[in-house]
Specification:
alpha+beta, 19-stranded mixed sheet, 16-stranded mixed sheet, 30 helices, 37 strands
Length: 929
Amino acid sequence: MTRKKNDPPVHESAFGEPRDWDEVLDRLSSSVRSRNLEDSTLSEASSRVWKRITTELAEDSSAPSDSSSFSVLRECEDFRQLIDESIAKTLPAERRILFDSHIRECFPCRRALAEASKHGSLEAASLAKEESEHVSDEKDDRASLLLRLAVAAIVLIASSAGIFFMVSPQKTLGEIREADGTLLRLMGQDSVVLTSQDVIQDGEWIRTGKNSNASITLPDGSVIEIGARAEFSLSQWLGDTTVHLRRGQVLIEASDQGTGHLFVKTDDCRVAVQGTVFSVNSGTLGSRVSVFEGRVEIEEGGSSSILLPGQQHSTSPSLEYVALEDEIAWSKHAEKWIALLETVSAIRKDLDRIEAQEPTTSTRLLDMVPPGTVVYISIPNVADNLTRAADVLLDRIRSNEALNQWWQENMRKTGTEQTLVAALDRVRLYGNLIGEEVVISMGGIGVGAGAPDFLLLADITDATALRQALSVELGMASVVAGGPAPVVFLDSRGRPEREAKEDETLFVWLHGDLLVASPDPARIRDTLARRKSDDNPFKRSGFHEKLATAYHRGKGWLVGADVRTAMHDILGESDTAGIQQQTSHAGGFEDIDYVLFERKTVRNKTENRVVVSFDKPREGMASWLAEPAPMGSLGFISPDAHVAAALVMKTPETMLQDIVSFFRQQSWLHDSTGFDPAVELAWIREFARPLGGEFAIALDGPILPTPSWKVVFEIYEQQAAQEAIVRLIDEINQWIATNSHRGNMISGLRLESADFRGRSAYALRIDGLPVSVYYLYADGYLVMTPSLALLERTMQNYENAYSLAASRTFTDLLPQGRDVNFSGILYQDMGSLLGPLSRFSSIAGKLSLEQRDFLAKLADEAPATLIYAHASASEIAVSTTGNGTFGMELGNLIGLTSAFGMNEILSDTMFLPSEGTVSDASSSVQESQ
């Protein structure tokens, strides 16, 4: 007979049959409690026992002291009179038995004995207590009040919980809709056969027999189909329903839970869903989860992951992938869900086959923009892709029964379908009439320059049809506005077709294959003249050269700015020079000439690119980034990292000196800390000398309760690096000692060392904070982590070549091109991080409902992205790639932490108890694992 982990102990009777001793004890205790004795019987028995005890004590007592002479011991005060004799060990044996028995049961007397033992006698303890109370009456009053409040709260909560569990009726959590074969309710030694329309109560264990199948409906409309030999129970708490699956398979069609959740819990994982279709198969080797519709979140071993339709997850490496149709072949409704999965998969394949529009390479419109342009915007025509994707999606939905039913109820009845179709028709109309791109240029933005020099250019395919469509739109706008639309068309020579009024703001030239629009008809005529003569001074400018380079690479969306000209136009030459002089300490960024923002999709991979150009070789902070080079530090970052950054630096020593130079100009630093940045720190050069120029940092593991960060430095001289660290610690300790009057939180730093996996490892202790840093040297790198366990895992992963750079998620994000290396990278997989973060109680309590919803949505939809940089002598290009057209934007990634106040939230998790010494490395690692 196989026992379960939480089953009561089972023994055998004299006949070899199993006996449940809990049941036997319950039966005996119930029979004793059920006996009713008369009051006279109880009184007579009590008198006989007490008389016998007192008589025997009187006869046997021979102690000479007064306190030991016979006296009745009834109240606590009687027993406290014997405390001094108990301490002196002169208490007679018969009284010591009674005294010890009372002390074990009476907490106040036990506390009095403890105080008397500490002070030598009961009288001395009383005097000490009076003195202590006299000194700290006010403090004790507050503590007493807090204690009483705490006790009251505990009693209230415990009472409420007790009342809830005692009087709360057992809930009905499911109804059997269909039972094919044997379905049992387990009741200790007995079991009851269930049939259709029977109900399942909270906490009842249900089992299906061999070759059996059953379906259960939950109150919220969810349907659970149970396979053969499965065993499960249902429970509910605060709106959440949990299916406890001991073994077997279930296929669940979960309805929308509203604010609640539906969980499936096995021995090794928990699956959280809202509205979706999925299966869970739990057995001896582990659990396997398969998703057919929607999404599920799996929590396993402190980490979580998201599964989407067609995906599968196993809790054990011994469990191999199984085709989804085979996984639910036992289900009566398998064909329905396989068909749904095939439909969703077909939609994805159809959308993938829709080729993204090829990036534009022609500079026809670029060559026509006027001289003095400082802002250039190019928007590609994506109407074709958008409408084709919508058509594919609508056709597939209408051809699938389940999806079409949902569409009818949620889109057609509400009128949303009609609005969507009308919008798509307009997109399709204008998309077919416009060419590859629309260009907007702006110039003349200086103070006193009047209206900006705005110009719109677009290639067109049918001028007559576009004119008619625009006339219809303008007519509708006139009706809504109650007057004529402020638009005037120009004839082929650039003259207004009708007299323009003062409040009319836009002139449109629409002929042949070109559309030109501007608030000033003279600008349109100038553009047409330059087009005919092909003599445009802008084509000879540096700004045009930078924009043309983007076109030659293949351009999607493009925004360019001539920063230097714009500053000169806005501020004037003298003010521009003054600002550059004031901001020179910013590190070379005052030398920026042009900034370009690009976005394009190539092979279903979206690339965002920012190019910053300088008018001379990079200096200061702008020069820190070296030209592309290999990055060995990524070998210490695992594929499980949520965020990882790595870069190669030109000269670490120069970088540190630039930082010191910046701080020299911050007067607040000296005023608030006493640190004098004007004094050259000799150890800066000493610390930077052994550094190799490569650096990496990562959040590689759980973020809560302690963030699993890693820092990796390239090191050329290990001994010199260690000596520099010791010197740095000494410098910091000296500064702390000198400024102790400032009430610093940190009282000092300590460095410990020990042998660790055949290497010398070090632990840096921060006195005053429960924080430690552990590090070691490996193959020319210094690796730092916040715990020994993480350091152990890092080295194991490194030795097994289990690294981020070799992972499929990372390599899929790498761009197409000639470059082998990068100057810097920033990788993020925020979805795997934000899911657990949004559920952590201390963080969820600091977020509004809208923020929590946005965080959960971002965790579901945000794909992994890679930001990478290439640096040259006078240019830095930063790009980002993500899977899918709607990948995370660079701006979203940068602004995420500030949007949610993550710096404040994460700071709450930093100061946690640190681990033991480095010498305890092996035991600490084993415990953590």
